[in-house]
Design goal:
Elements: H1 7-22, H2 24-30, E1 39-45, E2 51-59, H3 63-75, H4 87-99, E3 107-113, E4 135-142, H5 157-167, E5 176-179, H6 185-203
Helix pairs in contact: 1-3, 1-6, 2-6
């Protein structure tokens, strides 16, 4: 999440992620019996030096583990950060985290934001050679109000979605989800998680005899 968001928007994102993980549909898929359980790590980001790990890698094998993740997200307070949007460094931070999970057969990095990169390494300048094999980078863009013009939210969400599709998302089956304002973040995150988890569930099916 960019450091440019205010405290209310910050909570809508973090609590929205917790709410998405709490939804019955997501819980059902996450906790379904599988030989490939889901592991999750969460970090917040803004400026080039502002990446803070909120949740270390956690395996969600049962309801107790998932509930602990949700409680951790809801109880997290914001770390001091620059009011900038360093998407490139955020991607590199996420890739370093995923590198700790080399034994996973599917690794996904999700980047959420309400603006284009305006500092640090640009996402388009990260070469494909730095993206580990098998890693997918998905995006969740947030349409926000434009206080300079007084126009309603979504004024530039189409442009931002195109930017994420061109420069942020990488890998097979990568996609960009859209939140129609910060208040819609939980619903958008729920849709995105279900789409990602559906591919995991299909991939984890045993081979036919």
């Amino acid at each position: 999440m960019s450091g440019s968001v205010d405290q209310h928007e910050y909570r809508l994102q973090l609590d929205g992620l917790a709410g998405a993980l709490s939804s019955p549909a997501v819980r059902e898929v996450l906790l379904a019996p599988s030989a490939a359980p889901v592991r999750l790590a969460v970090f917040e980001w803004s400026g080039p030096q502002d990446q803070h790990l909120i949740l270390p890698w956690t395996e969600m094998r049962d309801d107790t583990a998932l509930t602990r993740v949700i409680v951790q997200l809801v109880s997290t307070t914001r770390s001091p950060a620059q009011p900038t949007t360093a998407i490139g460094p955020a991607i590199l931070t996420g890739l370093a985290l995923l590198d700790q999970q080399g034994n996973c057969w599917k690794r996904t990095l999700d980047i959420s934001g309400d603006g284009k990169a305006n500092t640090g390494t640009r996402p388009q300048d990260i070469p494909d050679s730095q993206i580990p094999s098998g890693v997918t980078i998905n995006g969740l863009v947030i349409g926000a109000d434009d206080p300079s013009t007084g126009n309603a939210r979504l004024l530039q969400v189409g442009e931002l979605s195109a930017y994420y599709r061109s420069y942020v998302m990488r890998g097979a089956d990568a996609f960009v989800e859209v939140a129609l304002g910060f208040e819609n973040y939980e619903a958008a995150m729920t849709r995105k998680l279900l789409r990602e988890l559906a591919s995991l569930a299909i991939g984890a099916l045993p081979a036919a005899p």
